[in-house]
TrEMBL record, chain B:
Subunit structure, interactors included: Part of the FGAM synthase complex composed of 1 PurL, 1 PurQ and 2 PurS subunits.
Enzyme class at the top of the EC tree: ligase
Source taxon at top rank: Bacteria
Listed name of the protein: Phosphoribosylformylglycinamidine synthase subunit PurS
Length: 227, 80
């Protein structure tokens, strides 16, 4: 495994940054918290993580204000040069708002905040994130969101499917597709066309200990150190 | 100058809030309603006095921040 320097962003309202720090340290990586007012990322950054929470109180749209924070310019530049970026939950919303990932996340179909452990099917493993997972394997990972209803037009979605950009889909314990929040084709996570920017609604950083319900998050987050 | 920007989900993008309100209206006996869409109204006070300039600027605001054009449409109205 390659030891990584993981830069974890912090916006007003972020609340998963310490879980994320703990998860990556548990995997043997170094972590640095980066306040949103910073205009530069630490020079040694190997991976940027935009963690979960409620940046700017989810005002206007989830992620829509955070996307204009000074640090996001640095993240845009970093991603533009091929740097790896992972957005979890609110981080996923911020990355779609910043157009670093295609699509958008709408209010859940049933209008509820859904918080539970959810089965996910691994769709593509040919990337820097899920390379230690098996294609079609079923993972068990917590979800906790109100705006996780992924939407994109059919034509772009077909292109993404062909290009292997769909990472995860919601499913039942047997791996059958399951409608959770109304996402098109049950999508729970995607990446960009260059496969260096990743986003997902589920929280792998909360699935690092079997005593807390699941340790499937280890296999997911570990991938970056082996890519 | 006062302007109103209305932002709403595009046609063809399911509006879960509109659907829930539609259902609730039906339960209350308002059975004539065939569709409900919920949007946001953003009211802005501007220092600009030139209508055309204001419109251009408002459009830029809508495109960059006020609406997410992947899922939303908007319209702009200068009211005074």
């Amino acid at each position: 495994m390659k030891k990584l320097n993981v830069s974890i962003l912090q916006f007003p309202g972020t609340n998963c940054e310490y879980d994320t720090v703990w998860a990556f340290r548990r995997l043997g990586h170094e972590t640095t918290l980066v306040w949103h007012k910073e205009e530069q990322l630490p020079e040694t950054t190997d991976l940027v993580v935009v963690p979960g929470g409620f940046s700017y109180g989810d005002y206007l749209r989830s992620g829509s204000i955070a996307r204009f924070s000074p640090v996001m310019k640095a993240v845009q530049a970093y991603a533009g040069e091929g740097g790896r970026v992972l957005g979890i939950c609110n981080g996923f919303q911020i990355l779609t708002e910043a157009h670093l990932l295609p699509g958008a996340l709408k209010r859940n179909n049933n209008l509820h905040f859904i918080s539970r452990i959810q089965h996910l099917k691994v769709v593509n493993t040919d990337n820097a994130f899920l390379n230690l997972c098996q294609k079609d394997e079923v993972l068990s990972i917590p979800i906790a969101h109100a705006d996780g209803n992924y939407f994109i037009d059919d034509e772009t979605l077909d292109d993404m499917e062909r290009n292997g950009q769909i990472l995860l889909r919601y499913c039942d314990a047997e791996g059958n597709p399951m409608v959770v929040n109304g996402s098109v084709r049950q999508i729970a996570g995607v990446c960009n066309a260059d496969k260096n920017v990743f986003g997902l609604m589920p929280h792998p950083e909360r699935a690092m200990e079997s005593i807390l319900g699941s340790e499937d998050g280890i296999r997911m987050l570990e991938g970056f150190g082996f890519a | 100058m006062k302007a109103i920007v209305n932002v709403y989900l595009k046609e063809g993008v399911l509006d879960p809030q509109g659907k829930a309100v539609h259902h609730a209206l039906g339960s209350l006996g308002f059975t004539n309603v065939t569709d409900v869409r919920i949007g946001k109204q953003i009211v802005l006070q501007l220092e600009e006095t030139d209508r055309e300039k204001a419109m251009k600027e408002l459009k830029e605001m809508a495109e960059t921040l006020l609406a997410n054009t992947v899922i939303e449409d908007y319209d702009i109205e200068i009211v005074e």
